[in-house]
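ok so for the tutorial part 2 we go from a plain amino acid sequence to predicted C-alpha coordinates. step 1 is just haveing the sequence, like this:
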Amino acid sequence: MSMAKQAIAFGVGLIVLSLICYVLASSNVGVTVDPAKGKASSVTLFIPAIFGVLLAVCGSVALKDHLRKHAMHAAAAIALLGGVLAGGRGASKLSGLSEAISSGNWLAPLSVWLMTFICLAFVAVCVRSFMAAAKARREAAANG
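step 2 — the prediction. this is what the C-alpha coordinates look like for a chain of 144 residues:
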Protein backbone atom coordinates (compact mmCIF):
# COMPACT_ATOMS: atom_id res chain seq x y z
CA MET A 1 0.00 0.00 0.00
CA SER A 2 1.36 3.42 -0.89
CA MET A 3 2.18 5.90 1.84
CA ALA A 4 -0.58 8.21 0.59
CA LYS A 5 -3.16 5.46 1.02
CA GLN A 6 -1.74 4.62 4.44
CA ALA A 7 -2.12 8.25 5.50
CA ILE A 8 -5.74 8.13 4.40
CA ALA A 9 -6.28 4.83 6.24
CA PHE A 10 -4.74 6.10 9.49
CA GLY A 11 -6.81 9.29 9.13
CA VAL A 12 -9.98 7.27 8.70
CA GLY A 13 -8.97 5.25 11.76
CA LEU A 14 -8.81 8.41 13.86
CA ILE A 15 -12.16 9.58 12.50
CA VAL A 16 -13.73 6.21 13.32
CA LEU A 17 -12.24 6.40 16.83
CA SER A 18 -14.00 9.74 17.36
CA LEU A 19 -17.28 8.44 16.00
CA ILE A 20 -17.21 5.34 18.20
CA CYS A 21 -16.41 7.42 21.28
CA TYR A 22 -19.19 9.86 20.43
CA VAL A 23 -21.73 7.05 19.99
CA LEU A 24 -20.65 5.38 23.25
CA ALA A 25 -20.77 8.66 25.16
CA SER A 26 -24.12 9.64 23.67
CA SER A 27 -25.75 6.28 24.32
CA ASN A 28 -24.59 6.20 27.96
CA VAL A 29 -23.50 2.57 27.70
CA GLY A 30 -22.08 2.57 31.21
CA VAL A 31 -19.85 5.49 30.28
CA THR A 32 -19.56 8.74 32.16
CA VAL A 33 -17.44 11.12 30.14
CA ASP A 34 -17.68 14.13 32.44
CA PRO A 35 -19.35 13.40 35.75
CA ALA A 36 -19.66 17.13 36.54
CA LYS A 37 -21.59 17.87 33.35
CA GLY A 38 -23.20 14.47 32.92
CA LYS A 39 -22.62 14.50 29.19
CA ALA A 40 -19.89 14.28 26.61
CA SER A 41 -18.12 17.34 25.28
CA SER A 42 -18.37 17.06 21.50
CA VAL A 43 -15.27 19.21 20.96
CA THR A 44 -12.94 16.95 22.90
CA LEU A 45 -14.51 13.80 21.49
CA PHE A 46 -13.71 14.98 17.98
CA ILE A 47 -10.06 15.92 18.52
CA PRO A 48 -8.92 12.59 16.99
CA ALA A 49 -11.24 13.26 14.03
CA ILE A 50 -9.63 16.65 13.45
CA PHE A 51 -6.21 15.03 13.22
CA GLY A 52 -7.73 12.24 11.12
CA VAL A 53 -9.17 14.67 8.60
CA LEU A 54 -5.81 16.44 8.36
CA LEU A 55 -4.02 13.12 7.75
CA ALA A 56 -6.59 12.05 5.16
CA VAL A 57 -6.26 15.38 3.35
CA CYS A 58 -2.47 15.07 3.31
CA GLY A 59 -2.84 11.53 1.99
CA SER A 60 -5.19 12.70 -0.73
CA VAL A 61 -2.78 15.46 -1.76
CA ALA A 62 0.07 12.94 -1.74
CA LEU A 63 -1.70 10.93 -4.43
CA LYS A 64 -0.36 13.54 -6.87
CA ASP A 65 3.24 12.62 -7.69
CA HIS A 66 4.64 16.15 -7.66
CA LEU A 67 3.18 16.87 -4.20
CA ARG A 68 3.85 13.51 -2.56
CA LYS A 69 7.04 14.33 -0.68
CA HIS A 70 5.74 17.55 0.88
CA ALA A 71 2.31 16.12 1.70
CA MET A 72 3.77 13.04 3.38
CA HIS A 73 6.18 15.13 5.45
CA ALA A 74 3.21 17.28 6.50
CA ALA A 75 1.24 14.15 7.38
CA ALA A 76 4.13 12.84 9.48
CA ALA A 77 4.40 16.18 11.29
CA ILE A 78 0.66 16.26 11.97
CA ALA A 79 0.72 12.69 13.29
CA LEU A 80 3.74 13.44 15.46
CA LEU A 81 2.02 16.49 16.90
CA GLY A 82 -1.15 14.49 17.53
CA GLY A 83 0.76 11.64 19.15
CA VAL A 84 2.80 13.91 21.38
CA LEU A 85 -0.18 16.02 22.44
CA ALA A 86 -2.39 13.00 23.13
CA GLY A 87 0.42 11.14 24.87
CA GLY A 88 1.18 14.17 27.00
CA ARG A 89 -2.47 14.47 27.93
CA GLY A 90 -2.64 10.78 28.78
CA ALA A 91 0.56 10.90 30.81
CA SER A 92 -0.63 13.92 32.78
CA LYS A 93 -3.75 11.99 33.80
CA LEU A 94 -1.99 8.74 34.76
CA SER A 95 -2.19 9.45 38.49
CA GLY A 96 -6.00 9.54 38.41
CA LEU A 97 -6.43 6.76 35.86
CA SER A 98 -7.58 4.00 38.22
CA GLU A 99 -10.06 6.37 39.90
CA ALA A 100 -11.43 7.46 36.51
CA ILE A 101 -11.87 3.88 35.35
CA SER A 102 -13.51 2.76 38.59
CA SER A 103 -15.95 5.67 38.38
CA GLY A 104 -16.99 4.62 34.87
CA ASN A 105 -14.97 7.25 33.03
CA TRP A 106 -12.91 4.79 31.00
CA LEU A 107 -13.76 6.23 27.60
CA ALA A 108 -11.68 9.41 27.83
CA PRO A 109 -8.38 7.72 28.80
CA LEU A 110 -8.95 4.94 26.29
CA SER A 111 -9.53 7.36 23.43
CA VAL A 112 -6.47 9.42 24.37
CA TRP A 113 -4.19 6.38 24.44
CA LEU A 114 -5.67 4.96 21.21
CA MET A 115 -5.09 8.29 19.48
CA THR A 116 -1.52 8.29 20.78
CA PHE A 117 -0.93 4.78 19.47
CA ILE A 118 -2.50 5.42 16.06
CA CYS A 119 -0.60 8.67 15.52
CA LEU A 120 2.77 7.35 16.66
CA ALA A 121 2.32 4.13 14.67
CA PHE A 122 1.81 6.25 11.56
CA VAL A 123 4.93 8.27 12.40
CA ALA A 124 6.90 5.01 12.67
CA VAL A 125 5.57 3.88 9.28
CA CYS A 126 6.54 7.26 7.80
CA VAL A 127 10.05 7.19 9.23
CA ARG A 128 10.58 3.68 7.88
CA SER A 129 9.33 4.76 4.44
CA PHE A 130 11.43 7.94 4.44
CA MET A 131 14.54 5.94 5.32
CA ALA A 132 13.83 3.42 2.55
CA ALA A 133 13.32 6.24 0.03
CA ALA A 134 16.58 7.91 1.07
CA LYS A 135 18.43 4.60 0.74
CA ALA A 136 16.94 4.04 -2.72
CA ARG A 137 18.03 7.54 -3.79
CA ARG A 138 21.58 6.93 -2.51
CA GLU A 139 21.77 3.59 -4.34
CA ALA A 140 20.44 5.13 -7.54
CA ALA A 141 23.00 7.94 -7.31
CA ALA A 142 25.81 5.45 -6.69
CA ASN A 143 24.77 3.28 -9.64
CA GLY A 144 23.87 5.92 -12.02
